Amino acid sequence: MSQQNHKQQLGKEGEEIATAHLISKGYKILSRNYRSGKAEIDIIAMQDDILIIVEVKTRETDKYGNPEESVGTGKIKMLAQGTEDYMIDKDLHNNVRYDIISIIKNQYKTEVSHLEDAFWPGLY
What is the pLDDT of residues 23-44, one digit of tens each? Predict the structure, then answer.
């Protein structure tokens, strides 16, 4: 398996783990891998009438820092644009929260960290 395919497979597994985590916490999953222009939102969920935009970051190790640290301002701007498009598309007027689910997954362990309110696009 090539490095790229391996990373894609790890990312897919991470999104499955994140989705199961959210469902177990009572979130309603509205969409997965929503695309609009260049933006892609991994998971869009709803909880208590709040629209939750979830970025999933999966790594095999935290050797180079925690996975959530790789969410930069460019990604945040893209997520904000994708969120706006989704809300217009679905005619939603809910409050929005941006979460990151950070996963370390290797043959020894699977660690899931759910960072609620991880960032707010207007502040960057």
Answer: 999 999 999 999 999 899 999 9
We report the CATH number of the domain holding residue 47 as: 3.40.1350.10
- Condensed to tens digits (0 to 9), the pLDDT of residues 9-24 reads 999 999 999 999 999 9
Strand partners, 28: 46
Give the domain extent around 67.
Answer: 3-123
CA dihedral 13, 102, 97, 51 (to 10 degrees): 10
47 burial level (CB within 10 Å; 0-12, 13-18, 19+): middle
Q: Rounded to whole angstroms, how far apart are CA atoms 8 and 14?
A: 10
pTM score, two decimals? 0.93
